[in-house]
Amino acid sequence: MIETLKLLKGNHLVSIMKDIISIHDFDRDQIEGVLKSAQIMERFIQGTDILEGKILATLFFEPSTRTHLSFESAMKRLGGKVIGFSESSSTSVAKGETLQDTVRITEQYSDIIVIRHPRDGAARLAAEVTSIPVINAGDGTNQHPTQTLLDLYTIQKELGNIDGLTIGMMGDLKYGRTVHSLSCALSWFDVSLQVLSPPGLELPSYITEDLMEKSIDIVEVEDMEDLSVDVLYVTRIQKERFPDLEEYEKVRGSYRITIKTLDHLGEAIILHPLPRVDEIDPEVDTTPNALYFKQAWNGVPVRMALLASALGWDQ
Ligand code: ASP
Questions:
Q1: Ligand 1 pocket mutation, candidates 61, 142, 177, criterion most atoms within 8 A of CB
Q2: CB-based contact 92:102 (threshold 8 Å)
């Protein structure tokens, strides 16, 4: 165990910040620090005891598969334990308990909280009422910082570098929190962006303005055939965020990657935070372009790095 800790410290696995709420709170050095730590964590993927005795509480007020399970897997691989819920209807929330009270109570039983909530800003609110670290696993349409870190980790691992790349984002750029976080993180790098979305689902202007302020070249593309990218980041249409389901029906199924459309993409790698609905034909899965399952696996070392770092804060 001592050797592990020394190795990690020697490789700069130092605390980034107490809470991981928004990718806006990270600068380029911190992002690169996480990517480096995740690489180190791959060596401990079979298990280590650096978080022995620590308990992670997972509070999932919204559905999740990958984020929930990979945080759980990460904590267990680090030697820690996990408690939590994935259905708030089985907790006192159903009796009217406030988020603040749920978090204050969870603090009594755990050392770190991972929270997913449908409300924008919920993770920040949670962090304000507890002294233990809080990690945002997605808050409404706002942010999904740990997804972004694993997205960047995947790009770096597969293509060697993030600088110099042209990155396409296709899908629901309005409600998709993963693309909101990712575009913000990419603004630290020397990249160009190509964006493509069904009408009405464009990137919010506060994000495009921010990107332009940081001199990121951003081009809106009308057709999939016009994309010329190194990475294509695809997202599903976020049905559950539409105030009016009729609006969803208008854009449903409006884009789909198939073996045929792959011709235009050349060697571009395709990423997707998943779940997919109908935007990538399963026949694409076995092509060398399809990296989304590897991307999901990368969530484990990245989240190991974040948990270890967050729990090292006051040691
Ligand atoms: N799993 C991702 C999220 O929680 C992407 C999605 O749901 O479309 O934001």
A1: 177
A2: yes
Q: At which residue do the structure tokens 């984020």 appear?
A: 67
The DSSP bridge pattern shows strands 134-139 and 231-234 to be unpaired
Do 117 and 207 lie in one domain? The reply is no
Please indicate, yes or no, whether residues 269 and 211 belong to a single structural domain of this protein.
yes
Q: For residue 313, report the distance from its CA to the centre of ligand 1, in Å.
A: 28
Residue range(s) defining the domain that contains residue 45:
2-143+298-310
Does the global pTM surpass 0.90? yes
Task: Tell me, in angstroms, the distance from the centre of ligand 1 to residue 274's CA.
Answer: 6
Q: Work out which ligand 1 atom sits closest to the CA atom of 177.
A: 9
Specify whether 83 is located in the same domain as 185.
no
Q: Which residues does a 6 A CB cutoff place in the pocket of ligand 1?
A: 138, 144, 177-178, 235-236, 238, 273
Asked if residue 315 belongs to a domain, the reply is: no
Question: Which residues are within 8 A (CB) of 177 and not within 5 positions of it... i.e. 6 or more apart?
Answer: 138, 139, 140, 141, 142, 143, 144
Mean pLDDT of residues grouped by 10 in the chain (315 residues)?
Answer: 45 66 94 94 94 97 96 97 92 91 97 97 97 97 98 98 98 98 97 97 96 95 96 97 95 95 94 97 98 98 95 57
Token digits of residue 213: 């302020």
Domain count along the chain: 2
Cα 109 to middle of ligand 1, angstroms: 28
Q: CATH number of the domain that 9 lies in?
A: 3.40.50.1370
